[in-house]
Amino acid sequence: MTFDELGLSEKVLKSVEASGYTKPTPIQAQAIPHVLKRRDVLGIAQTGTGKTASFTLPMLSMLEKGRARARMPRTLILEPTRELAAQVAENFKKYGIYHKLNVALLIGGVSFVEQNKILDRGADVLIATPGRLLDHFERGRLLMNGVEILVIDEADRMLDMGFVPDIERIVKLVPFTRQTLFFSATMPKEIETIAAKFLQNPVSVAVAAAASTSDTITQRAVSAPSKDYEKRQVLRSLLEGAEGLKNAIIFCNRKVEVANIYRSLQRHGYSVGALHGDMDQKSRTETLAGFKNNDIQLLVASDVAARGLDIPDVSHVFNFDVPVNAEDYVHRIGRTGRAGRKGSSFTIVTPKDKKGFDAIEKLIDQKIKWQGDDVEFSTKGKHGKKPVAEKAASKTSTDKTSTDRPANNNTPEKAAQSPAPQPSRSQNDRPPRRGRGRDNQVDLILTDESHPFGGEEHIPAFMRAK
Ligand code: AMP
């Protein structure tokens, strides 16, 4: 199968060629012809499969006819996080080099400056997070009755983040005659129910099971005592001992922990950045860009901030905490071992983590090997044998000193200079389930502004599998 056979326009084919892609990915080959025939599509696929281009390419082809009117976007793409929204905007920029389309990004956390101008000019493509979109609609800046194509991306994540009521409202505001493209990495019951509500006679396309982990990732569990400072010591000994550590993402369950670990690693001389949902947009984009271009070696992140980000070539993932949702484990470790490369993941497990750890092993249907002794899961206060990680931890000096610089050759000389990102409000990184207005600021950014996302290409795993 080649791109020429999919029915895409000349301009799109030219930009695809310019981007260096020679073959559509399975999700692209399956979805694009149906999208071009104006069918509703239910796509089960996660990031890394080429999913984004499976809707951006046909949308660009279809948008060549017609013009945008003031305040009436012609197409609407809903994304759960700002970073994902920005990545999609970047996709339009990349594939839309031969088009003169107005692509607008409506996300929280950045200033109002351009928004009215851009809306008045009319957007061919509006990419938004649900809460921001509704805030804007309520201010009378936006009319949704011109929307011809609605894309709901990462639906399962939207569900996790409590966005479903917002999405239901938005769907009621766009015309019934629209075309709907709905993507989700997994298909829990709730998602099936809303998909059935939003889609009309959809074509289903699916690639790769959502609960599977890549064979290219070496997964290890490491036992640790429960206290945070002890876990941080274990983390540092893992970083010191990690073979072939080039760069790593360190996942935490709570944003307060993201900030703590960031500060701790910075104090210990690591090159580190942080990413969590409450940071302002500027710091988030700067950190991400720094990590992508290797100025920052370690990225401490929460699930919400990191989900779906296309960061090629991460050598290691460390789970500082066992994730609350087993599915997050699959997504977290899926940040490494991409594009057929080898990757390593380490999960720090404490005696209290039995439930979460069991759930992961059940979901991925395999036992995760222990590095050193396995943890002794136990009831409170009865830890039995001393976990090996505790021994390792007691060998290093305490977390409060700044003298125990890591011996790892990979550790850069200079720590990142950015200020410690401050957690705020709740400790959980997920936004509240109800209500909106979580940020006061709303902004529209034209994609012809300079943008830190994207730029790197990589070959996804499926492209290499013959
Ligand atoms: P996505 O799943 O949309 O996040 O895409 C994952 C990665 O695959 C991105 O870096 C894309 O640029 C890349 N990609 C998308 N389509 C293709 C293709 N047909 N051939 C090679 N790489 C692709």
Q: In terms of topology, how is this protein built?
A:
Layout: H1 10-19, H2 26-36, E1 41-44, H3 51-63, E2 75-78, H4 82-95, E3 103-108, H5 115-121, E4 125-128, H6 130-138, E5 149-152, H7 155-160, H8 164-173, E6 179-184, H9 189-198, E7 203-206, E8 217-223, H10 228-241, E9 248-252, H11 255-267, E10 272-275, H12 281-292, E11 298-302, H13 303-306, E12 316-319, H14 326-333, E13 343-349, H15 354-364, E14 369-370, H16 388-395, E15 442-446, H17 461-464
Parallel strand pairs: 1-6, 1-7, 2-4, 2-5, 3-4, 5-6, 8-13, 8-14, 9-11, 9-12, 10-11, 12-13
Antiparallel strand pairs: 3-15
Bound molecules: adenosine monophosphate.
What can you see in these coordinates?
With 466 residues, the chain is of the alpha/beta class. The protein is built from 17 helices and 15 strands. The chain has helices at 10-19, 26-36, 51-63, 82-95, 115-121, 130-138, 155-160, 164-173, 189-198, 228-241, 255-267, 281-292, 303-306, 326-333, 354-364, 388-395, 461-464, and strands at 41-44, 75-78, 103-108, 125-128, 149-152, 179-184, 203-206, 217-223, 248-252, 272-275, 298-302, 316-319, 343-349, 369-370, 442-446. It has an eight-stranded mixed sheet, with helices on both faces. Strands 10-11-9-12-13-8-14 form a seven-stranded parallel sheet, with helices on both faces. The two termini are 14 Å apart. Residues 381-420 and 422-466 have low confidence and may be disordered. Adenosine monophosphate (AMP) binds next to helix 3.
